[in-house]
Description:
The protein has 4 domains: 29-38 and 45-267, CATH 3.30.830.10; 279-402 and 415-467, Cytochrome Bc1 Complex, Chain A, domain 1 (2-Layer Sandwich), CATH 3.30.830; 522-724, CATH 3.30.830.10; 747-945, CATH 3.30.830.10. The protein is 40% helix and 18% strand. The chain contains 33 helices and 25 strands. Strands 1-2-3-4-8-5-7-6 form an 8-stranded mixed β-sheet, with helices on both faces. α13 (385-401) packs antiparallel against α15 (426-435) and α26 (774-786) packs across α32 (905-915).
Amino acid sequence: MQKRILSLALLILSGCSSQTPPESSQALPDGVHFVERVSNSGDDVVIPYSKYVLDNGLTVILHEDDSDPLVHVDVTYHVGSAREQLGKSGFAHFFEHMMFQGSKHVGDQEHFRLITEAGGSMNGTTNRDRTNYFETVPSNQLEKVLWLESDRMGFLLSAVSQHKFEIQRSTVKNERAQRYENSPYGLVHERIGEALFPRTHPYSWQPIGYVEDLDRVDVNDLKAFFLRWYGPNNATLTIGGKLDKAETLAWVEKYFGDIPRGPEVVNPPKQPVTLPGDRFLTLEDNIRQPMLMMAWPTSYKGAKDDASLDMLAKVIGGGKNSILYQSLVKTGKVVDAGAYHDCGELACTLYVYAIGQSDQSGRLDQIYDDVSTVLSSLAQRGVNQKDLDEMKGMAEASAIFGLQSVHGKVAQLAAYQTFYGNPNRLSTELDNLRQVQPADVEAVYQRYVENKPKVVLSTVPKGRTDLAAAKANYQPAPRIIPEHKSLSDKALHLREPQQESFDRSVMPQPSEPVTATVPALYRFQLANGIEVLGTAYDETPTVELQLVLPAGRRYEPAGKDGLAELTAAMMAEDSLRSSSEDLVSRLDTLGSSISWNPGMYGTVVSVASLKENLPETLAILQERLFEPAFTEEDFARIKQQALEGLVYDHQRPSWLASQATREVLYGKTIFGRPSEGTTASIQSITLDDVKAFYKRYYTPNGAQLAVIGEVTPATLKSDLAFLAQWQGAPEPSYVTPALPAENQPTVWLVDKPGAPQSTVRFVRRALPFDATGEQFELQLANFNLAGNFNSRINLNLREDKGYTYGAGGYQSGNKEVGLSVFYAEVRADATLPSIQEMRKELQEYSQNGLTKEELAFMRLAVGQQEALSYETPGDKGDLLRQIMTYHLPDDFVSQRNEITASISSQRLNALAAKWFVPSDYQIIVVGDAASLLPQLKTLDLPVRPLKPVQ
């Protein structure tokens, strides 16, 4: 029955793909050739599109979606780190950075500025096998985006300079330090790759590359990389959203058609690997919880057994019903365990991991034995059909939910074209998944895992190699680094269009402004007073509900910090009638999900379901909400996991900085304490505390429900009858505590020994949330100082100085208090100058305000952003919850747009002078205290050590 319902949902969504006859060549611009058009006509999940190719080899895919006034543009180049040469790792990722530095007709940093000014968003990503660049903008900005993307495809190198090269080299190094060296377990995949693949295999290094390679090369090496791989014949341009197909194709031909082809590109051969025997390695890291990672080489992306391997990973470690969870996590032997199949174009890897406790029970030799025993049991246990039905249900539903945004659909089309030459691959992959049988999963286990050689990496605290799973028996061979030969300018031949029929230096202007359509809302109350606010959404056959219960941290008793989170975690465990495993199984088969997320003022119960499965999903919600079992066994495990979660948090620089901020600004009040609790508070919480918190605060009185989806109010009222009958405790209230006196400006130093980077924050108390008042105006005032990529602080620290991967600032607030923050993760040796530059920028802005150009930029950027704000059910849900939480009028968005369009520079400057004076800010620094203290003492501020509460 459940399978039939799922199939019905798929039928409603899209249908079988059908390829239509060629479009008339007369309807196409010269140089544009029709390939195929795929539309909906059956019972498969399909993303409709039209595909074309230009004379220069550029593949163009168009997807029409008129539901929102936006377009998403993606340019994917079939080049990632796997195309790099030995000794030149990181080039693909490095070049991604260079593509944002301006081109012949686009000035430095202008790409970011123009997209931001248009109200859009943009980014680029690099992995092993491809690099993509993408923008989401209001639909009237499409021509401008095509002009921008084509200019950097055809005219980049003449704008590349040694200075830009050096700045981005520093930025990439900062990114590596932030995401790898200064992040817990950040080097795990790099170490495994070095052991899993031969040194000549391009997967043996990570896309970020090695610092020594980045230091070795020069700007001409980078130019040569562009000339080899960034031709139109190695690219796919995918455009989705509200577009006119004929007009779009004319623009594509105009801006891209004259760009010369690059060298011919042949798809690389598959390179799966085998190992001669088990390879054990040990990595010492600045952590407290040892981690075991096991890696088996498997096949490659698109292989016949790809889907079976994905299923195997889920059976081993894909959730509460996986064998690792049941045997190791639920029994408390490990903090966490899981498995995943990481698939690349050349080779794939099955990973299995387990994280040990922070005490002596975290010995990885015992965990290795336990994991091995669990894996061996799979041969005897086998795989049953029920396991696969659950996974197939979730996979198919995930495919549907993934089509809720134009970005998601465009990304799928682009990836499928790049790797398979066929954008219509989604239905094939789902069909492959549906056909997987238990015997197929058992077969890939035997083929790739059972008694097969693997890499085993033990990540242990520094100085504790005795905790490793086994003594290291493998050392990767030295890297192969050919002698670097500098390329001369003469060896590089720019590949630029020689003659075009238009003046490319003239930037195209947008067409008529688009109008953001705020979703139409409906309201009603359930019989018990629960407020319901909803909006229709029919682009996918889905329904999403967000039930906000007055069960937030605000109501935790003194000394019981973390109780709201523990209670929410217990709600996802056993009910009085069913085990958590049975409940998860039912949800997975339906393709539904229910999650519990506590916040300051409430706990949000999020429900996502296919339309046809909503009644059955709500029946599970009813059971979980009204009949939690609250067993001692579940509580003991959840409590231990919470304690270990605290250990993990204290290893993260970002958490340390956030908690230091709370303590410095709000002291020991509720606003100064960690939402996760402390070791002492978690240890003090009992199961009776959880039961009491549930009884008092899980109540319909004061509850609110947001609904987004293809469901009518009448049907919804019927489906929610069980909620309407719910009776509970009165709505809770609170009294805002007196905040401590503010500290004199001080540098608060949190020690993270040996950290290669420092986390720097300027913080002060600010205003509570106000949708249309001074707090909103303050966000507008911050926009040019620190609120976008082209802000003063980011351009200074990242683009001018090369101190950081990114810097910025924000203003946030809840019902009672607010916060003003400016932040940066900087090189350790640049900590002092970074602080000085941030102070300088704040001082300049607070004294002299913003320029006329900045005011115009802010008005355009913030005003146009509304067009992109309500595309997905998640976007709409955020709007509905904000309206209910803060009792906002339905037209508050229009009021904010009016403020943005009319606010004066005098008002913004007055706000800057009031709120952005650097001497009003506390400075938080998380880094290596021994090396930082002498530097920080040179500031005209006291320096005090701070150890965030544990």
